[in-house]
Fold this protein.
Amino acid sequence: MEEDERLLVFARSPEKGRVKTRLARATGEEMAVELYRCFVGDTLALCRKAGYRPSIFFQPPEAREVMAGWLGSDFAYEPQEGDSLGDKMYHAFRRAFRTCRRAVLIGTDVPDLPPAVLREAFHDLWKHDAVIGPALDGGYYLIGLCRNSLSPVLFDGLPWGGAAVLDMTKRLLEERNLTFTLLPRWRDIDRYDDLRSLFERLKGLPPGALLTIDYLRARGW
C-alpha cells in the first residue's frame, strides 16, 4: 500500500567507539554511548509527538536484532546501504519512495527539536520539491524530498561533516530547478560545547521531558 508520507531515522547500534566519537573525546566513551542512547530515545519521542512512526535505517547492517531489542518492535527496521553517508541517504530515500510520495530523513543529533518542525517539513513538501533543516555548523539536520526530486547527485561527493554541505545542497537543488524551503536553524550535538549549550538552555525542563537532560542531571550537571 502506498503512503503519502514516510519519516526515516538514521541510527547506529550503541557501541563504544562507534557513536558520538567527537563527544567522547571530552566525556569518555561510556558516557558518550549513554548520551547516544538518550539522543535516540528523545528523537523517537519527538517522532511520536509529531504523529509519525518512523522507519529506522540502522548501521551496521548485521545489527537488526540488537536495534529491535533496544528500541522495540513497533518500528520498521532497514539496514543502511552504501559506503559513504551520501550513498546511504540516497539509498534510504530510494527504498522509501517505493511505497511513499514524500519522505523526510533525520539523524539523532538534535534531541531537542520541536515536533512542530517535523510537521512543518512534511507540510512544506506538499508545495515544494525539497525541504532542508539547516544546522548551525553549515550542514543540515534534516532533509525531505518528493519522489520526483530524488537524484543521486544531491548526495554524491559532498564533504559530509564540513561547513559547506548546506550551501552545496542548495546550489544542487537550484541547478536542477527544484524548489525548496528552509526550516529553523538548529544546533547539532556533536561536541562538548554543543552538549553544554543544550543543558544550559534546557536545564529548567521538568523531569521526564527530555531523556538527555534527565541523564545529565543524574550525572551531577
User: Anything to note?
Assistant: The beta strands are 3-12, 55-59, 76-79, 100-106, 130-134, 140-146, 180-182. The two ends are 48 Å apart (CA to CA).
